[in-house]
Amino acid sequence: MNLGKTVFAQLFKFLPIYEFRKCVQRYQGTYKVQTFSCWDQFLCMAFAQLTYRESLRDIEICLRAHQEKLYHMGVRSPISRSTLAYTNENRDWRIYADFAKVLIQEARSLYLHDSFGVELEQTAYALDSTTIDLCLSLFPWAQFRKRKAAVKLHTLLDLRGSIPTLIIVTHGKIHDVKILDQLPLEAGAIYIFDRGYLDFGRLFTLHQSLAFFITRAKSNFDFQRLYSQPVDKTTGVQADQIITLQGFYAQKDYPEKLRRIRYFDVQNHKRFVFLSNNFILPALTIAKLYHCRWQIELFFKWIKQHLRIKAFYGTSENAVKTQIWIAISIYVLVAIVKKRLRIDHSLYTILQILSLSLFDKSDLYQLVTNFKPTFSIEEPSNQLNLFT
Length: 388
Description:
By secondary structure, the chain is α+β, with helices and mostly antiparallel strands. Helices cover 39% and strands 19% of the residues. It has helices at 7-12, 17-26, 38-51, 56-64, 67-71, 81-90, 94-110, 200-208, 248-253, 283-292, 294-306, 317-340, 347-357, 364-369, and strands at residues 124-134, 143-145, 148-158, 163-171, 190-192, 212-216, 223-229, 237-245, 258-265, 270-276. Strands 1, 2, 3, 4, 5, 6, 7, 8, 9 and 10 form a 10-stranded mixed sheet that branches. α3 (38-51) crosses α12 (317-340), α4 (56-64) packs across α6 (81-90) and α6 (81-90) crosses α12. The longest helix has 24 residues, at 317-340. The two termini are 27 Å apart.
């Protein structure tokens, strides 16, 4: 069925082209465009992500060497770095953001019933951000400090499948806690974040939306214990308390009861104090859920190591956001392919195979599944081994 088709062409058959066209029409992506369409731009930038190209010149040289094969994929225009630079600078980044969100919804449906290490019926999300440092002289629009520029990726990660369900790209100056105002809150879902997001007024808004949160308490916060529940200290749970906040402003911001859990991690010899508005789940489950928050840290580490989001091909805000969203699209696309073809290898292994085989005329499924490494090329256990 895939005889004569390149791996690149087979990979992109998994993309819903009709949805991409809707995104293009939504933001008038075809306005005054005669050559080098939005789809051409997406394919070129996707190629750069999959093969780890270093610059626009690098992209141009590699793609021109395969111009005939690109033609059969629908790329009719000659590739030049000036054209690619212009489209990245001027073509609306929201086209690619919206398309990435379409892929995210598809991926979430595929991984809906996957386990993430905790037996749980509700959806669990981890919220965090990562900072990407930039050169202030090249990216003056993203000033972060006096001599430094940066952008932040605020990400809400579905722990089932490690799928990013919400990504907000901001300047580095934006404080993490402000992102709580932009969360699409889902009743019954559990939101897990560190104490950088501890704002009792915003947490009460989340509570009123019938959602749950798990976070860490700050060392100096004042509270009154109402009563304690019995615990099995052999599990690491040292206390399970129902509390109310003390202090005029704290009580005003969060007037209802909270749950305070003190937990000792034997493996790492660390003590944690968790706060939650969930009074139903066992204390140990809440501790385990917070531990799962580490998945988002590994997600950030993974995409920085294996996708091109630390070095940018353009310097404008539009070019940076375009590159980030196309990188996310590729991440989610490979996750979709892995699930649909039932591939056992990790995303890391699949990407390594694809990076060397994009223009081979081999069957995609056979290429990946027939690969039998004579040594382990999987990532170390302390790194993200996604979708295994």
